[in-house]
Amino acid sequence: MLKNNVGGIDKIARIVIGALLILGALMGYGVWMWIGIIPLATGLMGSCLLYSLVGINTCPMKK
Fold this sequence. Notes:
By secondary structure, the protein is mainly α.
Protein backbone atom coordinates (compact mmCIF):
# COMPACT_ATOMS: atom_id res chain seq x y z
CA MET A 1 0.00 0.00 0.00
CA LEU A 2 1.20 3.48 -0.84
CA LYS A 3 1.95 6.04 1.85
CA ASN A 4 -0.19 9.16 1.97
CA ASN A 5 1.61 11.79 -0.08
CA VAL A 6 -1.31 14.00 -1.19
CA GLY A 7 -2.51 16.54 1.31
CA GLY A 8 -4.57 19.66 1.88
CA ILE A 9 -5.22 21.87 -1.12
CA ASP A 10 -3.76 19.27 -3.48
CA LYS A 11 -6.31 16.70 -2.32
CA ILE A 12 -9.24 19.13 -2.65
CA ALA A 13 -8.10 20.23 -6.12
CA ARG A 14 -7.83 16.61 -7.32
CA ILE A 15 -11.31 15.74 -6.05
CA VAL A 16 -12.93 18.83 -7.58
CA ILE A 17 -11.16 18.53 -10.94
CA GLY A 18 -11.81 14.80 -11.13
CA ALA A 19 -15.50 15.23 -10.31
CA LEU A 20 -15.87 18.01 -12.90
CA LEU A 21 -14.21 15.90 -15.59
CA ILE A 22 -16.45 12.92 -14.82
CA LEU A 23 -19.49 15.20 -14.85
CA GLY A 24 -18.41 16.45 -18.27
CA ALA A 25 -18.10 12.87 -19.50
CA LEU A 26 -21.57 12.04 -18.21
CA MET A 27 -22.94 15.13 -19.97
CA GLY A 28 -21.45 13.94 -23.27
CA TYR A 29 -18.53 16.35 -23.71
CA GLY A 30 -16.15 13.57 -24.64
CA VAL A 31 -15.01 10.10 -23.75
CA TRP A 32 -11.56 11.45 -22.86
CA MET A 33 -13.07 13.19 -19.82
CA TRP A 34 -13.28 9.84 -18.04
CA ILE A 35 -9.61 10.49 -17.24
CA GLY A 36 -11.10 12.36 -14.25
CA ILE A 37 -11.30 9.01 -12.48
CA ILE A 38 -7.56 9.20 -11.83
CA PRO A 39 -7.38 12.53 -9.96
CA LEU A 40 -10.63 11.73 -8.14
CA ALA A 41 -9.29 8.36 -6.96
CA THR A 42 -5.88 9.72 -5.93
CA GLY A 43 -7.54 12.59 -4.08
CA LEU A 44 -9.89 10.28 -2.20
CA MET A 45 -7.15 7.76 -1.36
CA GLY A 46 -4.62 10.43 -0.42
CA SER A 47 -1.79 8.78 -2.32
CA CYS A 48 -0.41 9.20 -5.82
CA LEU A 49 1.88 6.68 -7.52
CA LEU A 50 3.50 9.35 -9.68
CA TYR A 51 4.32 11.43 -6.60
CA SER A 52 5.91 8.34 -5.02
CA LEU A 53 8.06 7.70 -8.10
CA VAL A 54 9.25 11.32 -8.29
CA GLY A 55 9.62 11.78 -4.51
CA ILE A 56 6.99 14.49 -4.05
CA ASN A 57 5.00 14.74 -0.82
CA THR A 58 2.39 17.47 -0.21
CA CYS A 59 1.24 16.06 3.13
CA PRO A 60 2.25 18.06 6.19
CA MET A 61 5.18 16.55 8.07
CA LYS A 62 4.39 14.95 11.42
CA LYS A 63 6.54 16.18 14.30
